[in-house]
Amino acid sequence: MVGPVDNNELDLYLASASPRRRQLLSQIGIRFKVISGIVIDESQHEAETPEQYVGRLARDKALAGYFRISSQLQGECPEIPPVLGADTCITIDGDILGKPTGRDDGIAMLQRLSGRSHKVLTAILLYDGRKERHSLCQSVVSIKTLALDEIECYWESGEPADKAGAYAIQGAAAKFITHLQGSYSGVVGLPLYELSELLQSSRK
User: Fold this and answer.
1) What dihedral angle (degrees, nearest 10) is formed by the CA atoms of 178, 95, 15, 131?
2) What separation in angstroms does the CA of 104 have from each of 98, 143, 152?
3) What are the tens digits of pLDDT across the range 74-122?
4) CA distance 165 to 92
5) Which three-class secondary structure state does DSSP give residue 56?
6) Which H/E stretch holds residue 138?
7) What are the pLDDT digits (tens) for 136-174?
8) Contacts 24+ apart (CB under 8 A), 34-38
9) Which residues pair with 9 in a beta bridge?
10) Domains with residue ranges and CATH for the chain
11) 87 is catalytic
12) Tens of pLDDT along 32-41?
């Protein structure tokens, strides 16, 4: 929920409850307020590419967050800081790997990623009630060949259970990563360079 706040002190509203995105924003000194409880349709549409999918979800989150804020303020503030929507997905062989449904699904995901490279897509969108500014960050992550006991041990740590693709690059899975081409922060969930560029353009 959003509490009382002076909008003049904010750079943006974040339409996400992700602690990782909050940490990344704080890392570069962004002043923000979280809009939690945003609910959107996260099912992949027929014939929708992974790029289109993350772009749509980022946009839907930003717009839903903006309309909630504007409704709460009810015209009290003529200038509402932009609302940031973001979405990240892992894709391999054209398929999107979401959060595992359970142990067997998580282990199967990690076996599929083992010894291969996959793509991580993070879309971000800023909406201020007038204009949408968006960017898509694409990174390629390579994972070493994993033995089954390594995968099972990692699963038992609990870390993969709520992570897309069943791993967290910022966690214990860092020891599995052999190569990263692209944006580390984008893989974590929020590409900071691209966001900084969007914020600068929004201020012009």
Assistant:
1) 110
2) 14, 19, 10
3) 655 567 899 999 999 999 999 999 899 999 999 999 999 999 999 999 9
4) 10
5) helix
6) strand 132-143
7) 999 999 999 999 999 999 999 999 999 999 999 999 999
8) 34/2, 35/2, 35/65, 35/68, 35/69, 35/83, 36/1, 37/1, 38/64, 38/65, 38/68
9) none
10) 7-202 (3.90.950.10)
11) yes
12) 999 988 999 9
Furthest-apart CA pair in the chain: how many Å? 58
Predicted structure pTM score:
0.91
Structure tokens that stand for 56 in this block: 């749509």
Q: How far is CA 74 from CA 20, 79, 132, 183, in A?
A: 30, 12, 21, 38
Residue 177 tokens, joined: 């990563």
The encoded tokens of residue 185 equal 């922060």
Distances (CA, A) of 18 to 21, 24, 52: 5, 10, 21
Q: Which residue has the tokens 């969108």?
A: 125
Q: Is the dihedral of CA 22, 25, 31, 32 positive or negative?
A: negative
pLDDT at position 3: 44
Q: Which of 11, 41, 60, 87 is catalytic?
A: 87
Six token digits for residue 172:
């214990």
Contacts of 63 (CB under 8 A, 6+ apart): 83, 85, 127
Mean pLDDT (the chain, rounded): 92
- The single-letter DSSP state of residue 146 is P
- DSSP character at residue 8: G
